[in-house]
Amino acid sequence: MTKIKDLDFSWQSKITKNITFIVTKDCQLACKYCYLVGKNEKERMSWEVAKQAIDYILNNEDKFKEEAVIWDFIGGEPFLEIELIDKICDYIKIQMFKKDHHWFNSYIFSFSTNGINYHTEKVQNFINKNKDHLSIGITIDGTKRKHDLNRIWKGEGPEKGSYEDVVKNIPLWLKQFPEAGTKVTISSTDIPYIKESVLHLFSLGIHEVNINCVFEDVWKEGDDLVFEEQLIELADEIIDNNLYEDNVCSFFSEHIGKPLDRELDNQNWCGAGKMLSIDTAGNFYPCTRFAQYSLRSKRNWIIGDINNGIDNNKLRPFLTLDRCTQSSQECIDCEVASGCAWCQGENYDAALTPTIYQRSTAICKMHKATVRANNYYWNKLYRKLELEGKREDFEKRGIKVSPISCY
Amino acid sequence: MLKYLVIVLDDTSVSYCHYNNECKEKRLIDIDTLKKGIVYAMKENLSIQYVLPDYTLPKKYVEVMESIDNIKFCSSNSDMIDEADVIVLNGWCSNINFNREKTYVLRISKEELFEKEKDIKLSFDKMSRLNVVITNITSFKDSDIDRYNDVLNSFSKDVKSLIQNGFKINILTDRIMLDAMNNCNAGAENITLAPDGCFYVCPAFYHCGENGEYGLGKTKFCIGNLEKGVDIKNSQLYEVEYAPLCRKCDAYHCKRCVWLNLNSTYEINTPSHEQCVVAHLERNASKTLLESIGKHKLFVPEKEIKEISYLDPFDIIDKL
After folding, report:
1. Residue B159: is its pLDDT beyond 90?
2. Among residues 68-87 of chain A, which lie with CB inside 8 Å of chain B?
């Protein structure tokens, strides 16, 4: 039997189904860049909704033929609903066993958490119970001043940052998940703190920092130049101090910044439509970003529900979507197109009409700045390695870089 | 590039396609709007198609309408049937005095089509062209495939002997004559001027009414007016090149109805499974008809319709 650790659980992988439960729309924090514009304390998933969703999925094995599954839990903050999650996960395991489902032993439970409740007894008990099938990412944005700039507690009164409440749980998290990486989000205001933040995360023992700019149109004139400067300084620090030997920052990848072939590189960027997201009311979405609490100006894009199943006609636009059809001619012809990401939900939200076929280009300047800094990084690093006679060894080792994430 | 301007003359004007027009309250287009619409079409080099109501239009309207070359659509119940070029039959009725000079559109449910197939084909020899529009195509099920195939085969036997006399029926003969996509092309080649003075992608987007919803918003949305001109947001999505499923498809006769697309998949450029299956059943029946007649007899020696293994291009999207 294939061991769980041997499976590739990349969310973009064709063999893995990503099923997301939006267990709550509540969160302790009110991060300024959060795309979840409709967070609230009222909408929580009931056990009945969760059970019906699981029954639909596991009873329709012919519709979910992927070899493995990621059961993903998000919010808001998912660990606010740890008791429900524990019940859901127990039920999933029992039902997969009872049905002799092909996902039995080919699953993981995945969480993106703000980390605040990580140390609590209930969360720790859950982790211990499911430790062989778990992936947990704690979001910490970098130094205290960068983290606290955006990731603040919700509520009235003066702003209160959440850094101290999160950083205290990082050692426990890294002890339990030594290979874990974190996601860092960059918006306009925190560009000046990128370098110090990435270096700080490395110093905390987080060796994989997946970092990306928000896809929304928040960028100001000149942001790209400050951003590029930060990345160049970061590149110098990583290379001059040999940090590249043990650490990875997703800003620096050799695959970024190349032209893309119209035919061969025409696939869509993300997995919207190949994933399944379930909200607190039992509605199905092609990705969480199409639920109403994620959308500023468009209506939620429901593709079915727990009572009626998936309407395949509603999925067809997602599953036929390709890069060129949704891109402007400028993007198609772009000389540095590779690695330029998009979020299908943000495309939909920002489009002139209710369509997923109009690509938002709000991050264009930021991507080009990334490419310039990335070119600098590799030119400098390879020159250094050549002079030290280490380039061949370095290339043989390969570099692990996670794809640019949604958030 | 736009080629046609459809002018809906009244809120009760007949539907000649998949959408229903259930409006009973008359609202005739303002005569100045009509005049401006005609001038607009002349300046933009658009051919005009009028969609008529059932009642007799005032003489001054007819005079304005006839100031430019045009095609007129009306229902078989219209008082102006003699003036029209295209007659719409809402459901099958045998007691029509067919006229070979006119084109007939049969709007019919799949159930009625299956039931009255024999009656319908008895009238083929009285017409020169019949366009069949299945009005409830979205309810087409896999279990309907065999029955529709039976209808197409049954029609085909009669069409085989009539085609050389010039008889045409959209669901069997159009595909034979085509070597590239030839769809409705609403929003790309034709737009509609409605009685409210606004432009719409097609009459369906006007007649759906203010309360019409399709899941992501209002189905009624205008694309400009006579004062400001036409402004179609994301206009590229109405073109076949921007429809991933359709641009490599060879069901060339398919309506590729953007109205149905929007309502069934939420995207203008994405057809539903049902629309694809129906079009491919017709395509395959056209192939059989072409082979049974012999392409040389039809003076289409270059035409060949290939054997394919699917009814929905979505099933082979990775190979497209």
Report:
1. yes
2. none
Chain A partners within 8 Å of B269 (Cβ): 317, 325, 357
Q: From A260, A268, A254, A253, select the one nearest A335 (Cα to Cα).
A: A260
Q: Is the pLDDT of residue A368 over 50?
A: yes
Is the pTM higher than 0.80? The answer reads: yes
In angstroms, rounded to a whole number, what is the distance separating the alpha carbons of residues B17 and B255? 10
The sign of the dihedral angle between the CA atoms of B295, B300, B302, B304 is negative
Question: CA-CA distance, A37 to A266, in Å (whole number)?
Answer: 31
For A223-273, write each residue's pLDDT tens digit.
999 999 999 999 999 999 999 999 999 999 989 999 999 989 999 998 999
Superfamily of domain A1-138+273-320: Aldolase class I (3.20.20.70)
Cis peptide before A76 (omega within 30 of 0): yes
Among A114, A126, A42, residue whose Cα is nearest residue A85? A126
Residue of chain A whose alpha carbon sits nearest to that of B318: A320
Residue B213: per-residue pLDDT? 94
With 70 as the cut, is the pLDDT of residue B318 above it? no
Query: What is the predicted ipTM?
Result: 0.95
Residues shown for chain B: 320
- The per-residue pLDDT for A300 is 97
Q: Which of B257, B270, B274 to mutate to test the interface with A (most CBs of A within 10 A)?
A: B270
Residue B202, C-beta contacts closer than 8 angstroms, at least 6 positions apart: B6, B17, B19, B184, B186, B187, B190, B191, B192, B258, B259
A325 at B interface, C-beta within 8 A: yes
Which residue in B132, B85, B84 sits closest to B278, CA to CA? B132
| Amino acid, single-letter form, for residue B278 | V
E-strand ranges in chain B read 4-8, 47-51, 70-75, 86-90, 103-108, 129-134, 168-169, 190-193, 199-200, 224-225, 229-230
Interface test with B, best of A295, A320, A359 (most B CBs within 10 A): A320
A320 touches chain B (CB under 8 A): yes
What are the extents of the domains in chain A?
1-138+273-320
